[in-house]
Structure formats: structure tokens, C-alpha cells
Amino acid sequence: MLIRVEIPIDAPGIDALLRRSFNGNGEADLVKDLREDGLLTLGVVATDDEGQVVGYAAFSPVAVEGEELQWVGLAPLAVDEAYRGQGLAKQLVYEGLDSLNEFGYAAVVTLGEPALYGRFGFVPAAQFDLRCAWPETEAYFLIHPLADDALNGVSGLVEYHEHFNREF
Q1: Contact 46/10 with Cβ under 8 angstroms?
Q2: CA–CA dist 24, 137 (Å, integer)
Q3: What are phi and psi of 19, to 5 degrees?
Q4: Which helix (H) or strand (E) holds 21?
């Protein structure tokens, strides 16, 4: 198993993984559109011994109350069904967090299962008076500060790119 930053040749494998993992086209189309528009801050892939993509984590820019603060959103995160339960999601997320930290990013937000993302160091964003645009998601909207001062004086609406507003 190899965990690394995605390269252009990975795109078809990422697309296929996302279509399998999410039983539809929404996440695959989202990543394709983000990539085409230059809005993928970071993509991390896991490949098996044959070089096939079996895991993926995408990170793209978010703003807080319209202000760019070097924050990104983690979405989507996918692991091929045959590789689940082996800690691969954790490895993908940690590789992404480490890389983003090295590049000077301040925080990562995600919308996901608190029990899963809590194991990766994410905490409820609401405790910092942060929210996302989608109703009834407060318990699932999470943050992982990378910089010590990432949350100083920051509160309000965390805004994802408009590509995230389409129906999945």
C-alpha cells in the first residue's frame, strides 16, 4: 500500500472509486469539477500493489464569512470496500493534515460522522461558534485546527465553493 499526493494519471481511478463508494455520480463529479477549476488544494490517494486507487481524500478551499483564512474542507473521503477497517482512512487523513500543516494551512473542516472524524482529532465546530450553510448539520460539522491561532477571533459561516451546493 502506498499513500501519496495524487497525480494526473490517478484521476480515472479516483473517479471510479468515488462512483463505487458513494453509489452515484455526485462526489465523483464534484471532485472532477473542483480539479478542473483548480480548486483542489490537495488530493491524497492510497494505491494497492498493482497501482489501483483504493483510497482517496480531497481537500479544497473554504472561506469564513467571506474571508480567506488558509482553511480547507475535507470532502470527500473514500476507501474501497475491500480495504475498509484497516486504518486506511486514518492514514489518508493524517497524510493530508501533515501536508497541509507543512504548507501553512490553518484549519481543516469537514461534514461527517463525529465518531469517525473524532478519532482523527476533529471536534465540533459549533463549540467555536462556526457553522456551515446546510441545515441540521451542527452535530456533523467538525474542525481540526492546524495552527495554534487558527480560531482566534474567528466565528460564523464557513463557506464551501458553490460546487458543493448541488444535489448529490
Answers
A1: no
A2: 22
A3: -65, -40
A4: helix 11-21
What is the chain's Cα-based Rg? Answer: 15
Whether the pTM exceeds 0.85: the reply is: yes
State the Cα–Cα distance between residues 116 and 38, nearest whole angstrom: 29
Structure letter (DSSP) for residue 10? G
Residues 137-147: tens digit of each pLDDT:
999 999 999 99
Ordered structural domains, the chain, with CATH: 2-164 (3.40.630.30)
For residue 139, the 8-state DSSP code is G
Q: Rounded to whole angstroms, how far apart are CA atoms 97 and 42?
A: 10
Q: What are 47-94's pLDDT values in tens digits?
A: 999 999 999 999 999 999 999 999 999 999 999 999 999 999 999 999
Separation CA 121–CA 107 (nearest Å): 12
Contacts for 7 with CB less than 8 Å, ≥ 6 apart: none
Nearest to 59 by CA among 129, 166, 160: 160
Of 67, 69, 38, 72, give the one whose Cα is nearest residue 57. 72
